[in-house]
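Ticket #4471: structure output looks truncated?

Reporter: J.K.
Steps to reproduce: submitted the chain below (348 residues) through the standard prediction queue, then opened the result file.
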Amino acid sequence: MKNNNLSRRTFTSAAVLAAAAVAAPHLRAQPKLEKSKISIAVGGKAAFYYLPLTISEQLGFFKAEGLDVEISDFAGGARALQALVGGSADVVSGAYEHTINMQSKNQAIQSFVLQGRAPQIAMGVSTKAMPNYRTIADLKGKKIGVSAPGSSTNMVANLILSRGGLKATDVSFVGVGTAAGALAALRSGQIDAMSNTDPVMTMLEQKGDVKIISDTRTLKGTQEVFGGLMPAACFYAHTEFVQKNPNTCQALANAIVHGLKWLQTAGPSDIIKTVPEGYLLGDRALYLASFNKVREAISLDGLITEEGARTALKALASFDPAIKPEKIDLSKTYTNEFARRAKERFKA
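Returned output as attached by the reporter:
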């Protein structure tokens, strides 16, 4: 009996050691997360602008990295940024240019994985409210819908206005969100024009509700508007957070790059099956038409290029006198170290 117990103990110990040996490489591959519960703020989650975030969430890629993410959806990117500054969010899924804006206000914010390599924002005028629209000057005194004042949709509108000789103060900006509310605002005549993301803009365009006057939903359109590729949606956080939580940021970057890799080969039916029903805005065919239009704007590997960062700075400085390019250190607005490791791991 004694011998049996001994051999049973020996066998159990051996089994535990064997299991530990098998688990060891896995433990090495996934270092301990400094923070496993993460709150992410996003402005307009249903937009294609943030599709990689939704895909990674819906397919369990965050969970696979040991993360428990809580996503709070706001009306626009400016509101998501406020959540980060106010301390109610750890990370923002938002526009890269906020990192530049915040540096100009002496606040260190850093992007650590890219979701979009083109802004996917189109600007259109209402065919009902402005049937005789000819030039940007015609927008003087008009109401322009944006996802939320201060968001990237507002930034693109400011840029387009400045190229037509108008200042932001020459128009009124109205926050309309990025979903059904935006469609209703334009169709009911609350606004005369709109700068927004897909699927909203494609839906309005295909029904003849808007005439598109500027388009960054494709790489070609982005080159025309900005003079180069423009980094768009990314994950950003306080620089201090990135430095103190490298394993957590790596896990977040892994989840997003995993999503980007999946999106490279996903077919239309895969997308429809994965996104929440509400995102389709009641029209599957139009949703898919929108997806096909913006597909190339999705990042392939999560990396921000130096050229893209320079394009963003130039665009912001062109209409915002508070941004002085010579005082901005672009190398501090983003890091590619996490995305590079994730790219290697997922062969993105």
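Triage note (M.O.): checked the attachment and the full token line is present. Residues 1-28 have pLDDT under 50 and may be disordered.
Status: closed, working as intended.
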